[in-house]
Design brief:
The chain is of the alpha/beta class. It contains eleven helices and seven strands. Strand 1, helix 2 and strand 2 form a beta-alpha-beta unit. Helix 9 packs antiparallel against helix 10 and helix 9 packs parallel to helix 11. The longest helix is centred in the C-terminal third of the chain and has 20 residues.
Length: 252
């Protein structure tokens, strides 16, 4: 597959960027590394802002075709695999990769599917719930204990490694084509609805539903795999609705 086709399957997502100049610097980094697909979640005004145009010099075609979404969930519907760049480690974040290691997986997955590389807010990153959409996390090594790269620097380091890996050639797929995020979201909703119908009691912190979403996003299930669990949910639903002992309607 041509490098351009792989690059076209790589989508950079910025979550609530607050500075139009940062957006301009990001699109310039993307242009230099051959990535043209940019999505922004609830961004500051940037399209006709002079600061953005100045820092995004000769990269405005990326701005013109960029897409905006109200939530990260909406921006992820057609994505199969997602990588989140972050410096914050915690029990909700596993599978940390260096930019170089992430680039290997990003290029491999992008042969067959759309891959997202997500960057959070300049001041606060992403929320715990937003982080559940990520399959992997990217952390950029630094000489200081608490690194503080700005948004465009983090993007540049990451997309440079992607382009560098593509330049080496010999990209091969690691996994079969994965189901899209919207399919996982539908399965998550089906399972969660069933849990509530059997009177499952969630704790106040909502730990179970986060664990459920994280567990699903860590899999490499295909559409066929999702269909198996959809069928299981459908059968359980039918049983609940048709068993009088469980409050369902009587069988005719």
């Amino acid at each position: 597959m041509e490098d351009s086709k792989i690059l076209n399957n790589i989508i950079v997502i910025l979550v609530e960027p607050k500075n139009p100049g940062n957006i301009g610097s990001v699109v310039r980094a993307l242009k230099n590394m051959g990535i043209s697909n940019l999505r922004l979640v609830n961004p500051v005004e940037y399209r006709d802002v002079e600061e953005q145009k100045k820092l995004g010099y000769r990269s405005q075609e990326i701005v013109e075709k960029s897409k905006e979404f109200k939530t990260l969930k909406e921006a992820m519907q057609d994505i199969s695999t997602a990588f989140l760049a972050t410096t914050r480690k915690g029990k909700w974040k596993k599978d940390f990769l260096s930019p170089k290691s992430a680039a290997e997986m990003i290029c491999s997955n992008a042969i067959k599917e759309k891959v997202a590389v997500i960057f959070g807010r300049e001041d606060s990153g992403v929320t715990i719930d937003e982080s559940q959409y990520a399959n992997y996390f990217i952390t950029i090594p630094a000489a200081v204990k608490y690194p503080s790269l700005n948004l465009s620097q983090a993007v540049m380091v990451t997309v440079y490694e992607i382009y560098s890996r593509l330049s080496e050639g010999n990209i091969t797929p690691i996994f079969p084509r994965k189901a899209k995020k919207k399919e996982f979201e539908r399965l998550y909703e089906n399972i969660w609805d069933l849990m509530k119908d059997i009177e499952f009691r969630e704790d106040d912190k909502g730990l179970f539903h986060r664990s459920l979403k994280r567990a699903l996003n860590r899999t490499h299930w295909t559409n066929a795999d999702i269909a198996v669990f959809d069928r299981a949910c459908k059968q359980v639903r039918w049983y609940l609705d048709n068993n009088p002992k469980l409050g369902g309607k009587k069988k005719s």
